[in-house]
Amino acid sequence: MEGFVHSQAETVRRMLSPGHCSKVVLSVMDTGVGIKPVDQAKLFKLFGCLQATRKINTKGIGLGLAISKMIAEEFGGEVAVLSEHGRGSAFYASFEYQEDVSGKKNKSELDLKLEAIQQRQLNKARINLEKMTNSGKELADGQRILIVDDEAYNCEMLKAIIQ
C-alpha cells in the first residue's frame, strides 16, 4: 500500500508590537493505518505506548509525544492528534512566542525555561516509574539493570530516573 507523510511548519504572525505574540504551528500528516480513539489518549502520557501489530510498527518507549506536549504547553501551546482508524493521522504542535522587535535576543531566559521543563519531565518520569515498579521488589546486591534503546536520549533519561 502506497502512502505519504507530509510535514509543515507555519508562523501565524500577529501584530508586531510589544506585548503581542505570534504562533508557530507544526504539523505532520500521514496516510497510515490511523489510531483508534481509545489509543489516542495513551499517546501523550509518559510511557504511553501502543501495542505493536502487523500493521503498526511501534518504536520507542513512549516519551516523545509526552515530552513534546509538556514543552508546547510550557510555551502556551498545545499538541494534538486527529486520526481516523484506517485512514491516517495528523499531529499538530503549536506554541506562542513573543517576537523581539528590538533585535535583541534573551537566550538565558529561554535556556532557563528549557532546563525547568527538563527537570519537571524527569520528576514526573521518576514518579511514574515508582508507580510502575512499586511491587515491593528490590534488586539484590550485585544485580544490575541493562537499558537498551536506539535513542541515546531515552537511555540517558532512564538512567537518570533509575538512579
Automatic annotation (TrEMBL):
Pfam families: HATPase_c. GO terms for molecular function: protein histidine kinase activity. GO terms for biological process: phosphorelay signal transduction system. Residues 144-163 form the Response regulatory domain. It catalyses: ATP + protein L-histidine = ADP + protein N-phospho-L-histidine. The keyword Lyase does not apply. It is an enzyme of class 2 (transferase). This is histidine kinase.
